[in-house]
Amino acid sequence: MQPARPASGGGTIGVPWYLPVVLLASLCVIVGVMWDISWHSTIGRDTFWTPAHMAIYLGGVLAGLACGWLVLTTSFGSTAAHGETVRFWRVFHAPLGAWVCIWGTFAMLTSAPFDNWWHNAYGLDVEILSPPHTVLALGIAAIQCGAMLMALAWQNRAIGDRRSLGRLYLLGAGLLLLLVATVATEYTQRWDMHQSLFYKVSAGAFLFFLVSAARASISRWPATTAALVYTALTVLMLLFLPLFEGRPLLGPIYVAVDHFVPPDFPILIVVPAFCIDLLMQRVRGRDWILAAVIGVTFVAVFLAVQWPFADFLMTPWARNRFFVSAEMQYSISPVMQARWYRLNPPDNLAFGLPVAAAIGFVSTRCGLWWGNWMSRVQR
User: Fold this and answer.
1) Which of 215, 209, 137 is nearest to 174 (CA)?
2) 167: exposed, middle or buried (Cβ count in 10 Å: 0-12, 13-18, 19+)
């Protein structure tokens, strides 16, 4: 069984079977992650065998099995495709992205017993990035990066209409951006949107992935598309999760909860992402200058849209099913409840925002380097 090969003429290029499978696995994983966070916020950690955990690891196993089958069929089938693969142990052949996905699956499966032991030994996680969660996040990111690399390899080799491959690649980029946003949640909460740390973390975390995805893409609006995937999936989850009943099973319980607590409304990353696309269309061949311009523009535009939006999220107008600013997890203490609608005061922005722009410059320049490499991937 050999995957479809890129078209050599001007026709539409067939999508290889494993790309939709791995992207479906990535979607299953990230939905499971958001569901799991909601589960912890609503019910607590009642058992390791929650449906949310099963969705996460099902996605990991599905990606591993699909790529494992691809390795076997490529290695022991026709040798015609071996020139477009990466060899491992002299016998096994597969696209580079498949090897990255397989590594990600092993990392995810390793994190499962590690996470279970960690909770049994230390109780609930105080932070998102506990050691087992870090291993899990690296595994998830590897699966999403692997899917992107496989789509890029076909896109970069193909001759003809490559738009379907380009869309699949940007779907993977959007899922990866959503993972990054989830990992950075502790530093991007709405109470901190008037502080410089929020903009420093956003510039460092998001710019690398937006810019690298955009540089390797054949789309006209790649950063905007990836940001829209992040925004749309987050909004769907915040609308969908509260439809289901859920009650706390682990104390202390400070808030009466009777439905699943949704994620926060997505940050407005789509606006600076649109500006990134515009700049990358107009500033060509001067990556150092482009990095500097994007770093400054990102912070300025993001500040212009997110600062007033943070004020809006604290008003009664945002206390509804769409903006969900009134939703509290069951463990929110009375002290935190008393200041739920108050932003933390601005810190030294005159120093902090230039630092954020400098971080954005470094993140963008690294993203351009990485994107340049990805744009040449053909295996």
Assistant:
1) 209
2) middle
CA distance 3 to 94: 11
Give the separation between CA 329 and CA 187, rounded to whole angstroms.
Answer: 18
> Residue 79 burial (CB < 10 Å; 0-12/13-18/19+)?
exposed
Reported as a single tens digit per residue, the pLDDT across 342-371 is 999 998 888 999 999 999 999 999 999 998
pLDDT, tens only, 15-57 = 778 888 889 999 999 999 999 889 888 887 667 778 888 899 8
**Cα(210)–Cα(174) distance, integer angstroms:** 9
| Residue in 55, 85, 83 with CA at minimum distance from that of residue 70 | 85
- Cβ-defined contacts of 278-282 (< 8 Å, 24+): 280/211, 280/214, 280/215, 280/223, 281/220
Question: Residue 67: which of 38, 32, 103, 36 has the closest Cα?
Answer: 103
Under a CB-based contact definition with an 8 Å cutoff, are residues 173 and 23 in contact? no
Interstrand relation of 86-88 and 92-94 (parallel, antiparallel or unpaired)? antiparallel
Check if the beta carbon of residue 68 is closer than 8 Å to that of residue 92: no
Instruction: Establish how many alpha carbons lie within 13 A of residue 270's alpha carbon, considering only the half-sphere containing its beta carbon.
Output: 13
CA pair distance 172, 151, nearest whole angstrom: 9
